[in-house]
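Q: Structure tokens for this one, please.
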Amino acid sequence: MTIRWGSYKARGYYDELLRVAGKPRPAAAALCQYLRNLTDKEIESYKAAADMAIHIMGVTFTVYTDEEGSIDRAWPFDIIPRIIPKSEWVKIETGLKQRVVALNRFIDDLYHDQKIVKDGVFPAALLKNSVNFRKQCIGIDPPGRIWAHICGSDLVRDKEGTVYVLEDNLRVPSGVSYMLENRQVMKRVFSDLFENQKILPVDDYPSQLYDMLAALSPRKIEKPEIVVLTPGIYNSAYFEHSYLAQQMGAELVEGRDLMVDKDDCVYMRTVDGLSRVDVIYRRVDDMFLDPEVFNPDSALGVSGLMRAWKAGNVALANAPGSGVADDKVVYSYVPEIIRYYLNEEPAIANVPTYKCVTKEDRDYVLEHIAEMVVKPANESGGYGMLIGPQATQKELEHFRKLITKDARNYIGQPLLTLSTAPTLVGTRVEPRHLDLRPFILTSPDSVHVTTGGLTRVALRKGSTIVNSSQGGGSKDTWVVDDEGP
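A: Here is the predicted structure, written as tokens:
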């Protein structure tokens, strides 16, 4: 099992750690040398130590199956980190900040004057048929006119090494707790590596999240009451909800723990009586937030919550309605959105995208569907999509019918040859495809991007599906200072 980079083959791909003939990229040189010097026994012991740390720390994720219902599983983790040089990361960070600023202006415009629609840059028909546009939010002014306070934008790199934004997650983006836990595991297992390399930290995320949420408080008090609203223990991201609440020193609550009084303020039920809540970091979807306004049968939300938010007595992050920009068809317009609101060219490109809602693009997708990836507008987790080159004729025909029936709901993209990274597979090191989800925090006064993010790995050979629910795992992401002392 000893790692010998000369026998490692990732031909036809851009590898994140290695160049041709097993030569490390400059930022990864020290790591590769360190790994090369390990014995089989040492590698086995490090892997076992990582698995034990994950078990002790209780890092799990939930998978839903038709046969067994929900199952908690240990977080699948690879001990070989992904490395990004700081000089490259600075450019990526700039592009992510640009993107989230433009998207927040876009969302705010849609709930107010809709200038981008009136100017013909964004089609009125797309807005009319958006399943995530909330009429209940029209005219509301959240603090600083910020709607998407926490954004997770998925990045991929193609075989030429070009970085693209694959999609934006603006409703209730998840995964940041795993980024933080990955780093804790690596510090436990490879503490000497952190002493000898300039790896930029990610540990400040909980404090950054707390500061961002506190800045939204309608009451300008020293210590506002911040709560994390969870759907409960059966939600697939419950581990993250409880983890972030604990790290921030915030209360973890369910809908039944909160109430809205006659003064249109939100209160938390405690053993000492009612305590006013200033900020809610909600991990509950819009339609279940307030049975008074959305789904009347919801038992997950808080009756009257929208009244309290509209009155300015409580802040909600992310704001209801922010999902209007969390749509893969809207995603295809983000370059135009950046140009419209910021008068700038996008610093990070989109993956080339065909909008099936337009006849020309739809005809192209239908004709070339066997070569493309087809995605529904609002699915997540890798579900509901078609990977043309891997599909059967029956599946291709099925998707042709779906597109013809509801063109607004689909986009087509070329199948990118995603970058790879060395991954420990049993007793071998093999290339596996991966993506990256950085997290961007936006307050009225600042925009903060995590240093790196959650690297997700397709652990199945040849697969490009990185989601943990479909066999994916993760790596720690090291942004390494390559600019000298």
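A few notes: The mean pLDDT is 91. Residues 86-110 form the longest helix (25 residues).
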